[in-house]
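Got a spare moment? Tell me how you read both lines of this record:
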Amino acid sequence: MAWRRSLKAVIDGTNRLFSFACHTLLAVITVVTVMQVFLRFAVNSPTSWSEEVALLCLVWFGMLAVAIGIRRHEHVAITFLRDRLPEPAAVTLDYFAQLAMGLFMFVVMLYGGDLIALAGAQVLPASLLPKYLLYLPALAGGGLGVANAAANILLRDVHTAETEIPEVAHVD
């Protein structure tokens, strides 16, 4: 099915792009935090904006990483019930889980839009950046999460017996 290959290429390419953004955000958080600690304790001249910038990067990182985790199936899951069900019922339960995650991310997106409207033209006090930048990740991460959950459903990318992760062998 050509449309599935195209959808997989688009969604996986989008996730690679946002994954790169997450790596970049972690680097910025690290640099800004190390700089702030150095300036505060070594030079005794801290910046006023560094904590807000690190917070903004952390919020963006968190929302994007949660959405990417949906596509990669990297979220914590309690599989006790699913692992004891027959394969068709287990797969159905996994489709339901993808649907629930997509619905949750849609709600995050909706409320993120409300928060952006509520923030209006406010600015963060130290950095003078627009306050809506704190809430914009809810739209971006929510949208990506909805797209990833939908892609997992449409691509039939859910748990099956063939995708079982093997146990790690213990060496004595």
Notes: Confidence is low (pLDDT under 50) at residues 165-172.
